[in-house]
């Protein structure tokens, strides 16, 4: 049986309140009594319960992280950044998955209205085209920070990568590698992250080749359907000689299609993908990537949330923090 504050109080013949204040280093308790209590607690193997203490103060010392998935390497790195900040400040981290479902995301956030967590870090699902469930939390003064996949119209802090700029740079790079027909493949048009990347792609094409080839493909959750979409694209009469993939999992699909159709990467099709996938360097050919600062995005988002928890007057302050990405040039675009 674990040692309790009451057991320490009984042993020392003092009140439970005195023991509690002594363990909390209260100024109301003398140094002698504090030392007496601390020595007894150590001898009796007392272990404080920070969770119970936080509940007494009206805080759970827990933050929720709501993600669309964890198979993506970006989110794995972001979680590491979030936990580094949260754990250093004594917060527990609970991870919830929406599985790219708006209904599931709504249900998860509805559950948080009960006060189960102190604050929320959210990256929205690809189906999220209605933000009423997020606005309701903000209106109820529940601290929330959006990261990576954000809703720019909401009055809260958003932490993102420079998606427009990095997509513009990636497209311009493929143009410099003599690509005349560059396609762009992404997922949901609901996501601002995808829209920003599409806009960067279009802007680079219009500035360098106005009125020229543009082809924007929307992939599917089902890999077999995405495979067919790419196969149809690459067997067409005006097939692209370069492609930018906005979604990590599409890189495996495009490599498979090219292998099956005997399309040579990079001589017949140059491939560039937004991903933090460490194994990209070991693919054949090695994959050129736009690496987002996932770990730093996680750290920055967690820091912003904890700041909101400390200063409740800034809960609805609108703020967007943009962090730079980096293109890693490899053989798939050589």
From TrEMBL:
It comes from the Bacteria. Residues 3-57 form the HTH lacI-type domain. SMART domains: HTH_LACI. Keywords: DNA-binding, Transcription, Transcription regulation. Pfam families: LacI, Peripla_BP_3. PROSITE patterns: HTH_LACI_2. This is LacI family transcriptional regulator. It comes from Mucilaginibacter terrae. The lineage of its organism: Bacteria, Pseudomonadati, Bacteroidota, Sphingobacteriia, Sphingobacteriales.
């Amino acid at each position: 049986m674990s040692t309790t504050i009451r057991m320490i109080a009984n042993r020392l013949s003092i009140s439970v309140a005195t023991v509690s204040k002594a363990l909390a280093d209260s100024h109301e308790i003398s140094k002698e009594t504090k030392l007496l209590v601390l020595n007894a607690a150590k001898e009796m193997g007392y272990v404080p319960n920070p969770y119970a203490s936080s509940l007494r103060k009206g805080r759970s010392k827990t933050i929720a992280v709501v993600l669309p998935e964890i198979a993506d390497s970006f989110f794995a790195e972001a979680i590491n950044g979030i936990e580094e900040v949260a754990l250093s400040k004594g917060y527990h981290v609970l991870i919830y998955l929406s599985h790219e479902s708006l209904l599931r995301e709504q249900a998860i956030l509805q559950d948080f209205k009960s006060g189960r967590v102190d604050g929320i870090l959210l990256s929205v699902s690809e189906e999220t085209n209605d933000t009423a469930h997020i606005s309701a939390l903000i209106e109820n003064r529940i601290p929330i920070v959006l990261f990576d996949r954000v809703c720019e119209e909401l009055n809260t802090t958003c932490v993102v990568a420079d998606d427009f700029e990095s997509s513009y740079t990636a497209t311009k790079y493929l143009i410099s590698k003599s690509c005349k027909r560059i396609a762009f493949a992404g997922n949901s048009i609901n996501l601002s992250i995808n829209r920003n990347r599409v806009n960067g792609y279009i802007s680079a094409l219009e500035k360098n080749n106005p009125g020229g080839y543009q082809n924007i493909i929307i992939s599917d959750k089902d890999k077999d359907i995405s495979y067919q979409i790419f196969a149809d694209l690459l067997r067409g009469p005006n097939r692209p000689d370069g492609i930018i993939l906005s979604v990590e999992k599409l890189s495996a699909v495009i490599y498979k299609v090219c292998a099956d159709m005997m399309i040579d990467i990079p001589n017949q099709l140059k491939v560039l993908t937004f991903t933090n996938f460490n194994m990209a360097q070991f693919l054949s050919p090695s994959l050129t990537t736009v690496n987002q600062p996932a770990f730093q995005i996680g750290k920055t988002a967690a820091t912003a949330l904890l700041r909101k928890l400390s200063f409740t007057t800034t809960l609805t302050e609108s703020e967007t923090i943009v962090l730079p990405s980096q293109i890693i040039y490899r053989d798939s675009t050589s």
